[in-house]
Amino acid sequence: MDVSAKGVTSSDVSTKDRAVSGFGGLSDEKRWEKVRTRLRDEVGEAAFKSWLAPVGIKDVRDGRLRLNAPSRMVRDWVQTHYADRIRALWGAEMPGVHKVEVAIAAPRAKVPPIPDSAPAVVGRNIEAREAAREAGIPAPVLASDAERDSLGAPLDARYTFDNFVVGKPNEFAHAAARRVAESKTPAFNPLFLYGGVGLGKTHLMHAIAWEIRERDPSRSVLYLSAEKFMYRFVRALRHQDIMSFKEQFRSVDVLMIDDVQFISGKDSTQEEFFHTFNALVDLGRQIVVSADKSPSDLEGLEERLRSRLGCGLVADIHATSFELRLGILQSKAEHMGVEVPPKVIEFLAHKITSNVRELEGALRRVAAHSQLVGRPITLENTQEVLHDILRASDRRITIEDIQKRVAEHFNIRLSDMSSARRARAVARPRQVAMYLAKQLTSRSLPEIGRKFGGRDHTTVIHAVRKVEELTSRDAGFAEDVELLRRMLEG
Ligand code: ADP
Ligand code: MG
Description:
The chain is an alpha/beta fold. The protein contains 23 helices and eight strands. It starts with 9 loop residues before the first helix and ends with a helix.
């Protein structure tokens, strides 16, 4: 495209100067937005708001990605905790960056520096905003200042018990959470919820908080991430405000600390947390904690804190099952008010197995796409819209995968794939599996035959022909086979 013909104004040039690197079309700012969005999914909303939202991109120079942070604390934190991850994510967008540098975007001459001890929160925000404006950080990201300065973190209105779908993998954690929410005195102290990322820990904690508030608005519930706890603590230290910090935390009826793994290795924060914890337990207040691992598996934790954390009820949330994923998708689709064909729901539940957050994201993408282009959701466009995610989860298809999938789909036993039974109810699915094995793997006919209970290669040829014939005259059958193929293929 001829840029000069478009009449680029001088202001265009000056912003682009800073933000567009030589090629690729996407500006560095856009790229940074993408990376940040990924990080937000990875670290969660609370950590994102505290640490990453205020960070802007300065430029990319000599293989160094240079970022601006509004304060020393944010700078140090981002540099030590997120630099590696940022570099990896940036590298996926644009190779060539081998270092991430975070600097403090100090206010320049115009704005006199305000000493650290300045009490006026408003004044400090103005200063930060001014500095950010000069450093080229978009203003809205600082809107979270007030939120960050408040004691707890806001609760997500969607994270209620009503919206939580219960299945085998999470029923124990759910029951424990409910019990805590319904008890006036501590049911178990603490309730320790743990599980992998995106499996519903934060959702359950918010649900507890909502429920308690609804049952008894006079009880004070404080929910925050361990990172925020640390942020508050360090700030209190800096402002020599430790007494009121202690008081604030010790005056609550229910304290919930999310993602407690973040204080691993932070000795003074752990120590403070330990004391807060003990004080609250002594006062008969309820504590709820979440982490990505069980207390005994958390590294970098002081022994006494570890044993304290494990002495209440420890409830884990397991990886999702197919059934749970189905349930969650159905519920989310209903909530979003979109019509999603059962085949698509099934397809998504089969393909996106990592965690609920990804599952939700995929569904949202499919729904948004269908609304934008004004077409109903189908298996085809679902595949198209999600092809990048599906590719990523792709792996080589084995005959065992095929047998398992087909057996599940037709509701027969896996052993029937190699049994001698000839009843149509099992023979037909077996033929479908042989057909798919021929289509989707590079195995020879005799090899396929062997995997199906030592059958002859002519049996496989017969199966392939039979399935081809059936698909050409039975649309329902053809659709089944197609669905299976797509599920296996991605
Ligand atoms: P974690 O804190 O364990 O990383 P989250 O609680 O943030 O995970 O959950 C990620 C997303 O998945 C949230 O949008 C949440 O509402 C949703 N989610 C997780 N588990 C369930 C469930 N059982 N039912 C409904 N939504 C769920
Ligand atoms: Mg969480």
